[in-house]
UniProtKB/TrEMBL annotation:
Record-given protein name: GST C-terminal domain-containing protein
Stretches assigned to the GST C-terminal domain: 82-216
Pfam families, per database record: GST_C_2
A cellular component term, taken from the record's GO annotations: cytoplasm
Protein source organism: Fragilariopsis cylindrus CCMP1102
Length: 355
């Protein structure tokens, strides 16, 4: 995630599967990777550096920041600003001092003990209190180094994002976004999600996806998911199924408009390949990937969905139509047939963001 935020934070065009510039190659998925690629974390091969491969996330972020200081002749976000570079580095280093030592996991890191049970609640609370205090060191803004989004935020966000989605499932009354207990951490989450468009619209994972990881054997829990964890997950899922308010919808669209318009760059670099709203972008992704989705549905043999490709294709087009016209209040959208509802439920279950 850190390397992806580094590129997007610099407002470089991001392509699915591979991202290729004249000076570097970065591979972010396990599909179609070259022979030199080894492992699942982002790696970059810099052709102008003897073909050496770089893979540690924050090393990548720093190198990206060094190489891409301008776009279209204009300065872009400096993730290591000169006047606060020492503070940025210190805040990055504080992560290892604050987060707990526990069972390693690629998607459920810093959550489980070596016996497969969640870390004790008081240990999590200590981590959150220390993080809140670290953010309080800067009274000039909500980010780790004040009013500016920097590499320090990039270093912390993958893990704090996961904590926001996962900790409420592990212990009662454990919420990193609690404004009363962790006011500075609350403000940081709010700033990241509402004032950094590239994070909120392109990088940020959703809580339901991070919760799914808690039930997967091999991702920290040793395959033994405590019943209380499952119960809490079910309760949180019910709460999240409530429709968002008109004000929340409006704020989401404002953030999306900022992302699409690439406000930090010249108008000529507007993201013309992105749809005009989140729901239309979802419809676009659905249609572009319909063949693979159909194969997935057929392989899962869901009784609630047909197994013929033509029927499934028609259902997906109906769902895409609804997503494209989500603002309309007409019978076509209110009267959703059972198959379309079943497809939406299937996609919600199968989808992970990030995957």
């Amino acid at each position: 995630m850190e390397a992806r935020i580094g590129f997007h934070g610099k407002d470089k065009r991001y392509l699915t599967r591979d991202l290729t510039f004249h000076t570097c190659i970065i591979i972010t998925t396990i599909f179609g990777r070259p022979s030199w690629y080894n492992g699942n974390t982002p790696q970059i091969k810099w052709p102008d550096n003897g073909g050496k491969i770089q893979s540690e996330s924050m090393d990548l972020v720093r190198e990206i920041n060094k190489r891409y200081k301008t776009a279209a002749g204009k300065n872009v976000v400096d993730l290591y600003p000169g006047e606060t570079i020492n503070d940025v580095i210190n805040k990055i280093n504080e992560f290892d001092k604050i987060f707990p030592r526990c069972r390693p996991s690629s998607r459920a890191a810093f959550l489980f003990r070596y016996d497969g049970e969640p870390i004790w609640k008081n240990e999590f609370e200590t981590v959150l209190k220390k993080t809140d205090a670290l953010l309080a060191d800067n009274n000039n803004g909500p980010f780790f180094c004040g009013s500016r989004f920097t590499a320090a935020d990039i270093a912390w966000v993958p893990f704090l994002e996961r904590y926001a989605g996962q900790l409420p499932c592990l212990h009662d009354g454990l919420n990193p976004k609690c404004q009363d207990k962790y006011p500075y951490l609350y403000n940081w989450y709010k700033a990241m999600e509402t004032t950094v468009p590239v994070y909120g619209c392109r990088i940020r994972g959703d809580h339901s996806s991070w919760r799914k990881v808690l039930t997967m054997a091999g991702f920290g829990n040793a395959g033994n998911v405590p019943q209380l964890v499952n119960d809490r997950m079910d309760e949180i899922t019910k709460l999240e199924c409530k429709p968002i308010s008109k004000e929340e919808y409006k704020q989401q669209q404002i953030l999306w408009d900022q992302y699409v318009s690439s406000l930090s760059l010249s108008p000529s670099l507007k993201r013309k390949y992105v749809s005009s709203s989140p729901s239309k972008e979802a419809a676009s992704v659905l249609i572009r990937n319909r063949e693979n989705i159909i194969k997935d549905i057929i392989s899962k043999k869901r009784k609630s969905l047909p197994t013929e490709s033509n029927e499934l294709d028609e259902i997906m087009r109906s769902l895409a139509y609804i997503l494209c016209n989500i603002d309309d209040d007409d019978d076509d959208i209110r009267d959703i047939n059972d198959n379309v509802q079943a497809l939406a439920s299937f996609l919600d279950e199968r989808m992970c963001v990030p995957r």
